Amino acid sequence: MSSITLSKIVMYAASMLISTTGILFTLLNRRTDKQQNKLYLAMLVILDLNCMSEILAACNTIRAAVSPVAAMAVRFGHFSYFLLHSIVPSIFLFYVLYVCGANLSGKRKRYMLVTIPAFFIEAIVLLNPATKWMYYYDRNMVYHRSWGLMVIYVLSGLYIAMAIFMLLFSWKALNRKRRTALIYFFTVAILGIVVQLINYEIRTELISEAIGLLGVMIAIEIEDDRIDAGMGVYNRRAIKSDMHTYIVSGRSLSLVCVKITNTDMIKRATGTDNTEALSKLVAEYLRTLVPRYYIYSTNPGTFMITVMGTDEDKVTWLSETISERFEKPWKIGDNEIPLKVLVMAADVPGRIRSVSDALYMADSPVPQKLEKNILKGSDLDYLLRRAAVESAISRGLEQHNFEVFYQPTYRVSDNTLHGAEALIRLHDPELGNLFPDEFIPIAEQIGLIDDVDDYVFREVCEFIKSGIPALNLMESINVNLSVLQCMQPDFAEHVIEVAESFGIDKTMINFEITESIAASDYSALSRVVRILKRQGFRFSMDDYGTGYSNMQSIFRLDFDIIKIDKSILWSAEKGQMGQIVLDSSVRMIRQMRRKILVEGVETEHQLQMLRDLGVDYAQGYLYSKPISKRDFIALITNAKHVTS
Ligand code: C2E
Ligand code: CA
Ligand code: CA
């Protein structure tokens, strides 16, 4: 065997090793269920077979002139090589189409057209033994290329060009990793093909294609970073990148979000946190309904399913089937756990227009009052509203659309001004006036509450610095705090720093904390309260009696004032039971030597009730609604003129 033949065989064997490695890894990892995986595997198998054909031909070339058997082997090797290898470019084009997220199912006819050149190529190969258009052997069995081969190269080039075009077309839809991988494959493969085209003796085609495909495997086919290993479905990162691809390439689809709404009871029912185990069960169940590569696990207990195209019936069927399954309990060990589910179905790009819209559907808190557990169409308007409010908050911080309103508080005994509560408002150019009940929880969830509360705090500091509150004998101005914010590591230091930068009397600031959350982490919170109280700041417990009553927090946190919620006052007026709750609350708080403020005083009768009970302070519409700073200043200065 000549050294040239040997080097060719070594080259083919190396290529074979690479493509076989690719095949083994693909099969071992069972990456074979997606269309894209199948095409990838097909290309590797063809390359493998091609290597065998070429080795067979190379081994027999020298003896082909003298041995009919060797001649047959050479002919067979070349023929089978061309027959299979010529369809690789068209398979590759379809592979690229799938990777780019193109919608192939709806446009069958158009894609049938694309396969015509491939059939033409196959026909040339099949006819070659008779026509010799592609290649032929001379009397010494030496191989010669002829014009037909060039035609095949040109047509294959056409496929590659289409693939490149497709790639450029959906460039934005691809993430960086995919882009790099595909460019790499193109460069390596094209280089190898061109070298062999120029000099047939340098057989670089197969090895460069094999290396290129291996690169594609590393970057595209291996999806470890996209898969939730425990559940065997895609993860949050995958839905982000896939939604991006779908939205940029303008595909229509539906997103079905499956959310377990009672994960909190799992722990109670089973003693340990079985959310993960249950999620796995649910994932397994979902996989019986749709292929795994349409299922994403976005959060613990939340799944997203993509239904490609506009198949309303399928979406309805899927939503109903899932919802029905949840009517039966889920079994973990010996426990039968009843899970509650909310299924939301939204179409892309109709209702869901961006990746963040999609994630929002998965992340958003479940609406409070739910009559049904399948939401679709206009049921999901709350998601849109919520997204709009989210933008309004960010916009508000940038464009200074927030305003602090003040609502005065009075001493019940003699109706003199005691202080005020700072209450934030948002005037949005698009949504109009927004109230904190709506936007504060959203600001908390998107992590902007610090900025909002900080804004209020600075405004209040500035107001105090103006001297007007002190001049009007106000004791303090109340600032609402989100407990999320006071748990921040250097919250206390920050507050002290701001107050000192304004040079104000710290006793003029009274922070309100809602008791419901105050119970969540005492040690951190009590530390903050202690530090700040030592500096002179005051504290109030807000919304006392709203259902989360926790006596501990009154004991352990050193509040100056307890604010009894308006609901307690209002029910005291309505019936005897309510009256008892109010009476005993007041008595108990007084025994704890805390001052009492009652909110929501709207009538003289209510005020009289509080006076009889000996409540210290009152706040409510009877005196004033929350009003702008200007109106507030007018109110308190006029009042002073009247009284003095
Ligand atoms: P809150 O702290 O309990 O505030 C009292 C709420 O009751 C205010 O609603 C006030 O307008 C309303 N109110 C006062 N007197 C009466 C009355 O006589 N009748 C009736 N029907 N309502 C009365 P608002 O301003 O909409 O604030 C709602 C909630 O938003 C507040 O409840 C507070 O939890 C939160 N919030 C307001 N401003 C801020 C802020 O700057 N930061 C934070 N973190 N939360 C805030
Ligand atoms: Ca408050
Ligand atoms: Ca309150």
UniProtKB/TrEMBL annotation:
One of its GO terms (molecular function) is cyclic-guanylate-specific phosphodiesterase activity. It comes from the Bacteria. Residues 386-640 form the EAL domain. Keywords: Membrane, Transmembrane, Transmembrane helix. The chain crosses the membrane at residues 6-27, 39-58, 78-99, 111-130, 150-169, 181-198. This is EAL domain, c-di-GMP-specific phosphodiesterase class I (Or its enzymatically inactive variant). It comes from Ruminococcus albus. The lineage of its organism: Bacteria, Bacillati, Bacillota, Clostridia, Eubacteriales.
